[in-house]
Amino acid sequence: MTMANAIYRAGTGSDYPKISGFPMSDSKLKRISVHLLFWLFYVLYDTMNTSWGEHDYFDFSQIHKVWANVPLTIGVVYLNLYGLMPRYLYARKYVSYGLALVVVVVAYALVTRFIGYQFWLLWDRQHAPHQYLVEPKNFFVPIRIARNSFRLYPILALTMLIKVLRNSYGKERQLRIAESERHKVELSYLRAQLHPHFFFNTLNSLYSLTLKKSDRAPDVVMRLSGLMQYILYDTNAELVLLEGEIAQLKNYIAIEELRFADRIEYSFQSSGPVERKLISPLVLLPFVENAFKHSLSHELHKAWVTITIKVTGYHLFFNVENSIAQVNTAQPHQGIGLMNVSKRLALSYPGRHELQIKQEENTFSVNLKIQLYEEG
C-alpha cells in the first residue's frame, strides 16, 4: 500500500568539532557571528559620524573617541542586557532597574571623560582643547559629563529593543512548539484509542462467521489482515494519501458485506480527482464503521447505508447516512468512535473542516467537509 511520507522535520544540525576543549554548536556560532557583525557596523558608523562630524574631511584625530570607548560601550550594553534586565526589568522591579541603569550610565560618562582627558594630555597634547590644559577642573562639570553619556543612549535603546522583540518572539515560538507537541500527544492518544476499537469490532465479526462455519471466513481474514496492516503501520504518518484511505473504506465495506449480505443494502460512490491528495489517517473510516454498526444493531427488516465521497479542487465532501430504529432523537447516539474523530478533526483541521452530525426519526447522517493537502 502506497502511503504519503510523514511531514519532514529538519534537525538542528550537528555540532562543530571541539576547539580547545569547547564544543561550538551551529546555533552558538551563528549567534556569535551576528553579534560580531552588529558591533562591526556600530564601530564603522560611529567612526564615520564622529570623525567627519561637521567637517567636509575625515579627521583622524577624532578616531580615538570611538575606538578608545568601544570596549566600555560593549561592556555596558551586555551588562544591561544580561545583568540588569533579567535581574530587575524582567522581575518587574522597575525602580531598581532605573536606579541601577542611572548608576551605570553615570559611571560610563565619567570613565569615557577620563579616557578623553588622558588621551589629550598624555598622547596628543599639542591638539588638546585649551580648556583641558588650563582648566582641568572642567572635568567635573555636570553638563559635560552628561554630554559624554549621549553617545551611549542610542546603542543602549537599540539593543534593548532588539532584546525585548527577540524575547517576545522566542516566547511566542515556545508557546507554539508547546501547543504543537500537546496536539501531537493528544492525537497519538486518540489514535491509540481508535486502533483497539476497530480490531475488537472486526474480530467479533470474524468470530460470528467462524461459529457459523461460514465459507466467507477466509475472505474476511484476508481483508482483515490488509486493514490491520494499514491501521498498524500506514497510519503512523501525519498525512496519508486520500486514495489509500478510500481503498481501506472499500476494504472495510467488503468485510461487512461478507458478514451481513442478507441483512443490509449499501451504496458507495466516489467522484473527483483523488491523486496526490493528502488527509489525516483514519478520519473517514470511523464514520463508516459507526454507520454499519448502528444500522445493524437494531431489529430492522432491512438496514441500509449510503456513502458518498466527492473531491472538488482541494475540498473533500463526505456524506454517510444509515438507517436506525426509531429512537429518542433528543439524545442522539454518539459513541466513543465519533467523539474521538471529532476531537481529532478539531486538532488536525482547525478552521479547515466542517462537521455536521444529525439524527432524525429513522436516519442518522454525517456530513463532513475537509480542506485537503497536496503531496509534495
From TrEMBL:
InterPro entries: Bact_2-comp_sensor_kinase, HATPase_C_sf, Sig_transdc_His_kin_internal
GO MF annotations, alphabetized: phosphorelay sensor kinase activity
Residues annotated as transmembrane: 29-45, 65-82, 94-115
Highest taxon listed in the record's lineage: Bacteria
Pfam family, one: His_kinase
Keyword ATP-binding: no
Every Signal transduction histidine kinase internal region domain range: 186-264
GO CC terms of this entry: membrane
Keywords for this protein: Membrane, Transmembrane, Transmembrane helix
PANTHER family linked: SENSOR HISTIDINE KINASE YPDA (PTHR34220:SF7)
Protein name in UniProt: Signal transduction histidine kinase internal region domain-containing protein
Organism: Larkinella knui
Species lineage: Bacteria, Pseudomonadati, Bacteroidota, Cytophagia, Cytophagales
